[in-house]
Structures are given as C-alpha cells and as structure tokens.
C-alpha cells in the first residue's frame, strides 16, 4: 500500500476515439490483474476515508482496495457486494470524479486519485468469471409478499435485498425488459446490456418474479396491488421530459432525449423501431444539436457520433465549470468530435436551424448557481437537421396514473415519504429512487432501494439491514 508517490494514476486501456466512434462497444478495457493490484496499492489507507464518505452507499473502498492489492480478490468481492447490489454497474457509470475519486485524499494532495471505479468493476467481473457470485438462496421462505413497481436500479436492488430474506417478490414494469434506464436510457458504450441482463437473470433464478409489459393504472390500480401484497415499493423513476420554452419547440425534428436514446438502445438489442427506421430518431448524415449539459446530453451527443452524424454540437447555457454532467464524459465527447457551445441558449427552432444567444453568468439563482443572462446582440445560428432536447426529467402524475389520489406528492411532483423509512402517505406503500429524489444518480437509486427494503423487511417482521435514507428535503 501507500504507493501513490512512486506509481502514477492509471486507467484501463481506452480505445482510440476514431475506433470507438464506429461502434457502441464499451470504450475501456478491463484492468489486467497486475495493473488492478498496482492501482489499488496506491491507496493511502487514510484514517478518515473521504472516498467512502462521498459514496452514497458508504462502500468500504479502502478495505477492498487493500484486499485487491494483496491479491485477496474473493474477499474483496465479498466486501464490495456487502454494500452494493451492482458494483460492476456503478464502476462503469458512476461519476466518480464527483463522488469517491473526487474526494480521494491523495487526489487532494496532488498525486492523482486511485482509479476506484475501474477497480470496483474489475473485482465483480472477476467474481462472475470465478463463480464467486452465488445464487440467491434464502435461509427461510416467508409467506409475505412484496410488489415492486419499477425494474430500474432502485427496484432491482430492493428486490435482491428482500428476496435474500425470503420474501416473495414480484417486480412490475411497463417495459418489455427489466432494467429501466440501465437498459433503455444509458448507451452500450457506457454500460453493455449483457451486464444488466446478467443481474436480472440472477434475480429470476433466485425466485424474483417479473411482470413485464405491466402498467399500473392500466393492468391494475395501486389499490389492487396493495390487496395482492403485504407491502408495495414504488420505484418508477422520472420519465417526463422538460420542454423547450422557445418558438419552434414543437417542430418535427425536435425530439426528446429519452425517445432518442431508447430508440438507439432498442436497435442495439435487435428490436424493430419504426421512428428509427423512418429516419426520425436516427442521426445518420444529419447535423445534430443537443440542448442541455447533463449526463443525458452527453449520452445523446456521443450516440449521434456513433450513428454517423455529419456534425454534433452541444448547446449549454452555462460554462463548462458549471455544467451538471461528468467532466469525464465531456472529455470523451470532445475526443470523439463533439463541439460544445458554452454559454449559449436556444432562442428559437426553425427548419434546419437553431437560433441561439450568447450568455454570461450573473447573480446566483434559487439553486445557488450563477444564473445565465443573455448578452445583447449576441445572437447566432446553428444548422440543425435533428434537435435533441436533454433538459432533464420530471415526475409523472402518479396519483392520477395509479388511480390513488391519497398518494401524497411534494411541490416538485415527487412522492412524499418519511425520510427515515421511505414510507409514503399510504401505510405499507414505500417509494425509492428518482421518484422521491427527482432525477439523480444510479448509485443513489440503489441506496434508496436498499433503505426501503430494510424498512419493509422490518415492517414485515425481519431485521433491518440498511442505514437511514438521507433523502433530500422537499
């Protein structure tokens, strides 16, 4: 350990931009055994591990880094899996630069952070290869059942936690595959779909039932599900796209980010997608403008590059330092040829072009960030055959959709819950993930799923296994 002075930070081998532009394969190779051990050995084993404090799951990062450095990989996997239901997923898609790696003590001292995410992925991929990932086999079967609405990361994490304690678990989802945004939102070059399918298969083999193509409010109301099960967890995520507020927002060539990404992911899975096949959701040969600065916008610009777009520009109203997306993803996009228009906002969309205005940052707004202000006479135009709006997501009206007006919501439309247990206003009905927090990170959804599962288990007579939720205030 403590090799951070003599060894530099190192990431797994990354494919050249020109090569990776041509396909949707993941861009990083996996660490070789020796390289993973060397990188793990850079950990300073500090007395106050800020990396762990900045991980929403409280992962025991220094512990499993030490075990990797010592070649004790099976033990490292056991420690990693004890706090995280999907370490190989988080290792791929967490914005480590904003979480664990950004808080690394040796990063702060100028020596470059340990490559935590890549080592995390390496541990679990090795565990699957070696057969260390065991099937779910509860010590006892319980008669009580739990219904989970939503098969995204929060729902899948909760399903695993509850099934391990012997509860009968059914996961309901309106899509035809389990995984939620892990399957239909996040592109393959960040998360290969086989990784998600492997997790779902393990749950199925362990006795978790999946009711797919099932829409609450259409196939059954929430009241009916409550009658079927002893407890309910709502983990639907947030899918309603925020709209452009400028003239021309309804033009045919303006599309929502999730529609665009879902079409691309479905094509990658071999599905027939009419809007893609017609060209509407295919960027091939088009001049593409993506509006937004979050991770979803980065997924869109990098998808457009791989679809063969003639040009790809990202329009964001703040500067690079104030964008919400991962800086690592921005760097990947720039390597792949994406052009960023910082401090620029849309004014109007017309046929084959976007009229925009240059911006500057003024006084802080309600969120605490500097508010963008339009610069007089700073107008300009971008050619655009396809405009993708990636402005974030809002909750759907679940009380109406689920036929349950007593399901209380916050002023933002998210479900109102007890912050310690994640129980909603309806007894025995819990909620987790983005439908509580608003659009957030996969790692937070996993945490919430674990917290809700612990509260449900305790309600139904089993011991609690998770820590308090730390849910954002209304």
TrEMBL record:
Species the sequence originates in: Amphiplicatus metriothermophilus
UniProt GO molecular function: 4 iron, 4 sulfur cluster binding; metal ion binding; oxidoreductase activity
Annotated FAD/NAD(P)-binding domain residues: 146-449
Record carries keyword Transcription regulation: no
Cross-referenced InterPro entries: DPD_II, FAD/NAD-bd_sf, FAD/NAD-binding_dom, GltD-like, Helical_ferredxn
Official protein name in the record: Glutamate synthase (NADPH) small subunit
Pfam families xrefs: Fer4_20, Pyr_redox_2
Record-annotated Dihydroprymidine dehydrogenase domain positions: 20-131
Keywords (A to Z) from UniProt: 4Fe-4S, Iron, Iron-sulfur, Metal-binding, Oxidoreductase
């Amino acid at each position: 350990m403590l090799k951070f002075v003599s060894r530099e930070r190192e990431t797994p081998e990354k494919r050249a931009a020109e090569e990776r532009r041509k396909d949707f394969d993941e861009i990083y190779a996996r660490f070789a055994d020796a390289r993973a051990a060397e990188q793990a050995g850079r950990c300073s084993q500090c007395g106050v591990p800020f990396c762990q404090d900045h991980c929403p799951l409280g992962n025991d990062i220094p512990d499993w880094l030490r075990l990797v450095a010592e070649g004790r990989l099976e033990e490292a996997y056991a420690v990693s899996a004890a706090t995280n239901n999907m370490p190989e997923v988080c290792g791929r898609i967490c914005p480590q630069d904003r979480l664990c790696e950004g808080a690394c003590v040796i990063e702060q001292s100028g020596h470059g952070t340990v490559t935590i995410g890549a080592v995390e992925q390496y541990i679990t991929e090795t565990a699957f290869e070696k057969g260390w990932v065991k099937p779910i086999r509860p010590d006892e079967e319980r008669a009580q059942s739990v219904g989970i609405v939503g098969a995204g990361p929060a729902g899948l994490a909760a399903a695993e936690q509850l099934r391990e304690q012997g509860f009968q678990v059914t996961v309901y989802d309106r899509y035809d595959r389990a995984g939620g945004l892990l399957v239909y939102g996040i592109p393959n070059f960040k998360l290969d779909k086989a990784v998600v399918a492997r997790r779902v298969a393990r749950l199925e083999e362990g006795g978790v039932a999946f009711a797919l193509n099932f829409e609450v409010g259409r196939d059954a109301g929430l009241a009916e599900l409550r009658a079927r099960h002893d407890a309910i967890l709502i983990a639907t995520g947030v899918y309603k796209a925020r709209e452009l507020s400028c003239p021309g927002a309804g033009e045919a060539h303006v599309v929502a980010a999730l529609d665009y990404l879902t079409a691309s992911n479905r094509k990658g899975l071999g599905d027939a997608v009419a809007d893609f096949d017609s060209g509407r959701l295919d960027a091939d040969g088009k001049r593409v403008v993506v509006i937004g600065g979050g991770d979803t916008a980065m997924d869109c610009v990098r998808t457009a590059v791989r679809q063969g777009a003639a040009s790809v520009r990202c329009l964001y109203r703040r500067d690079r330092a104030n964008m919400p997306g991962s800086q690592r993803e921005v760097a990947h996009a720039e390597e792949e040829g994406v052009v960023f228009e910082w401090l620029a906002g849309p004014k109007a969309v017309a046929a084959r072009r976007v009229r925009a205005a240059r911006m500057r940052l003024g006084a802080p707004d309600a969120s605490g960030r500097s508010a963008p202000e339009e610069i007089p006479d700073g107008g300009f135009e971008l050619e655009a055959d396809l405009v993708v709006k990636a402005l974030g997501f809002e909750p759907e009206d679940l009380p109406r959709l689920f036929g349950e007006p007593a399901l209380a919501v916050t002023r933002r439309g998210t479900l109102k819950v007890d912050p310690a247990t994640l129980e909603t206003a309806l007894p025995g009905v819990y909620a987790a993930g983005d439908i509580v927090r608003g659009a957030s990170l996969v790692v937070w959804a996993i945490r919430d799923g674990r917290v809700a599962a612990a509260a449900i288990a305790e309600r139904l007579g089993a011991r609690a296994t998770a820590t308090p939720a730390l849910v954002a205030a209304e």
